[in-house]
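User: Hi! I'm working on a homework problem where we have to compare a predicted structure to a textbook description. Could you give me the structure for the chain below?
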Amino acid sequence: MDDRGTLKRSPLDAEHAALGAKLGPFGGWNMPIEYEGALAEHRAVRERVGLFDLTHLGKVEVDGPGALALVQGVVTNDVAAIEVGEAQYNLVLNEGGGVIEDLIVYRMQAQRYFVVPNASNTHRVLQVLGEAETPDTVHLMYHQDWCFLAVQGPMSPRIVETLFPEASGLSFMRCTESSFRRRPLIVTRSGYTGEVGFELFTYQDIAVDLWRVLLGAVREAGGGPCGLAARDVLRLEMGYPLYGQDLFESSTAFEAGLSWAVSMDKGPFRGRDALARQRAEGLPSRLRGLRMHERRHIPRAQYPVFLGDRVIGEITSGTFSPSLETGIGLAYFWPADVVAVGDVVEVDIRGRRGAATVVRPPFVDRSPR
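Assistant: Happy to help. Predicted structure tokens:
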């Protein structure tokens, strides 16, 4: 907690302060926003490697004979299709099909799953899982004493596989168990930057040691620590939606363009009936990508989008892309078919219009695979 008792702190808080990080509130935590600067950190991840502290994210274990049935009835994707050692992107919906949360489900053992929600929604996801019905025994455990680090960038395999040989050969969205300082550790080939990368979960009592070892290796490779500002630019260049920015309870999984993460044929799950109705009736809105024509025009959240004199959409996330050297953004358009990929629209940027082309993300030619 901070002095006012409002923010949680990472076990690496002192490390970040010693490195000169700019710290700020995020999802109820006091987290590093930037160190050297978002542009330099962005470049390090795209060209070399960067290290992130993501301990603010939730870490929930679902274990027991009823684990599969429980998770399957809560999330949208077909969890039964993933094997031990695999991970899967998922959504948790309300009964109206609106997005409560997006998260990753890892299958660690036959009856043991690891669920990682966003910081602000961890307790809500715990509540949804706790209230869901299952015919068999399930144990839910919220790992408040775990830390979460990410090594991201083209040089990350050399670093992580040297320290953790079990990670060698992991393909995208695969996970394995290892150890550090004789403590258990989960290594996953996943991330939120669009680059090849790894995410590591372990206990807080060895967090400082692990951070220092990783940071030393990252610095030797020409990288450094990275904050949440760079992470936001990296994820937006890939078109990855962020809960609270691009994903809302008022918009469904289909409207958010995430139908690929929904398995309508797997059986009942929260929000399925609403999605079935919407699929039959048509979408009232649709999340799409925008690339600005002029470098000086930077879209930001809540800026209106025009087609002629008519407002047809609103920016949800927007930034300047260092990779493209122009503004990019995600926006909801209504109705869903009001524009198509390739159409030109205008964004109102503080009273001035800037032309933009509707594009299909990712905005940059990168892949985490």
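For your comparison, note the following. The mean pLDDT is 96. Helices lie at 13-18, 38-47, 67-74, 122-131, 156-163, 207-220, 228-237, 272-281. Good luck with the assignment!
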